[in-house]
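Subject: sequence -> structure tokens, single chain

Hey, anyone have a minute? Need the predicted structure for the following. Not urgent.
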Amino acid sequence: MIIEIILTIIIASLSVFTLVKSAKKKISGKCDCDSCSSHCPQYNNKNKEKK
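Reply:
Had a minute. Here:
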């Protein structure tokens, strides 16, 4: 029972960490998809900035 609680806390903490990290990238205007392929809306913005 204690192990289940600890695992739940670890999983919840990792998900919150991931969401916060993604939110920080979005707020700063960076691409948060980690691949930035042509379907990403930030892809066009990056290409325009490079030109």
